[in-house]
């Protein structure tokens, strides 16, 4: 367990918690909303067995990281990632994001380039641009996100219950791919996160990543379930191969948003093959 300081708020350090295991070329795993770095537990062992160094970390406001009231935007999230990368002096790395973590992957490459990056992976991606607009008709209406903010303000724990049901497609996959205990563990992490950060993150989902995608010059794996209820696949994953210079794309039939947990065989197979094919 380690911490890296990424800024200050008043007299307090803003610190990111991270875990760093193994040796070899590094793979940095960036979690989704509203979880933390532990959510990669079904991917970490395979990567370690494949001879990779694996780093997970908790986004500000989540897990064991600091809970400031500021900095919930992708410029800051990418700067936080960059601070971690520089502190650990990571090179020849693969950066892999799930859900909201795919925004860090994309903005990091857009702002800091690929000098330290060998490859990237986006699982259940939020790019290219989630908000419906005149120049983005494939997006989601803004009223959807306004409703989410209202629900969080009204009763955050109740919102998280409904969110995690759709996150895992519980009505279809309960008992087969998501247990009561696994769902409860996710809820515990989500409920324990910063209330301010939870609400503030909703606005970040509307970030336009199209310019960042143009700067991505590394091989990029895109994986998404075709029954994703959180980030509609027609607004997100299916659009990315046409916007990336070197994309490898996999759709998981029947997969919900949280495919790293519910479909680890498919996700791990794709990720391990990709890391092997793009590694040394």
UniProtKB/TrEMBL annotation:
Highest rank taxon of the organism: Bacteria
GO MF annotation terms: hydrolase activity
Database matches in InterPro entries: AB_hydrolase (IPR050471), AB_hydrolase_1 (IPR000073), AB_hydrolase_fold (IPR029058), Epox_hydrolase-like (IPR000639)
Keyword annotations of the record: Hydrolase, Oxidoreductase, Peroxidase
Location of the AB hydrolase-1 domain: 26-264
Record-given protein name: Alpha/beta hydrolase
